[in-house]
Design brief:
This protein is an alpha/beta fold. The protein contains four helices and ten strands; from the N terminus they run βββαβαβαβαββββ. The strands form three sheets. A six-stranded mixed β-sheet has the order 5-4-1-6-10-7, sandwiched between helices. Strands 2-3 form a two-stranded antiparallel ribbon. It has a two-stranded antiparallel sheet with strand order 8-9. A hairpin with a 2-residue loop joins β2 and β3. The longest helix has 14 residues. The radius of gyration is 18 Å and the shape is globular.
Length: 171
């Protein structure tokens, strides 16, 4: 199987106080924005949505109208849900992991990250750091400002070739 998009929708939403991936955003659940972007990107043979075990049925109902989409149960943490996604797509050549809580991913970004991963082995979307960054001591008091040139905040999608190919020349 060529490329698979795994959308992580298994968070507890403890900071938000509501289930943010099922919350309404512009007339549809937040999750569907990422799902549609993945389908429009046109580079995925399958999309796997990783949902909390107790919400698999509800998320499956939301995805019924979509082709080549399946829903699997995730884990208690983001890492456990990422492993559940990897277990579900073991035959994929390229795997893209995207957080459902990032609904505004452009299809072109998904497609471009897959292209880069196919050529380079991996790709991660990111934004140049605009915030001031400071290092603190153990008590939390500011010690120094960190130069932010060259620093990036990693985003999703995070895309990689599932079985890295050796990189050597025959020369």
């Amino acid at each position: 199987m060529p490329a698979v998009l795994a959308i992580l929708a298994g968070g507890s939403s403890s900071r938000a106080g509501l289930d943010k991936v099922l919350a309404d955003l512009g007339g549809q659940p937040v999750l569907l924005w990422s799902l549609r972007a993945g389908q429009v990107a046109g580079c995925f043979g399958e999309i796997v949505v990783v949902a909390p075990a107790d919400k698999v049925a509800a998320v499956s109902a939301l995805t019924r109208g979509f082709e080549r989409v399946r829903v699997v149960a995730g884990g208690a943490t983001r890492t456990a849900s990422s492993w559940a996604a990897l277990d579900a797509v073991s035959d994929a050549d390229v795997i893209a992991i995207h957080d459902a809580a990032r609904p505004f991913v452009p299809p072109s970004l998904l497609h471009r990250c897959v292209e880069i991963a196919e050529a380079e082995g991996s790709a991660v979307a990111g934004l140049p750091l605009a915030d001031t960054v400071r290092r603190a001591n153990e008590a939390g008091a500011s010690r120094e400002e960190i130069e932010r040139d060259g620093l990036w905040a990693a985003q999703t999608p995070q895309v990689f070739v599932s079985s890295p190919r050796p990189r050597w020349s025959s020369d």
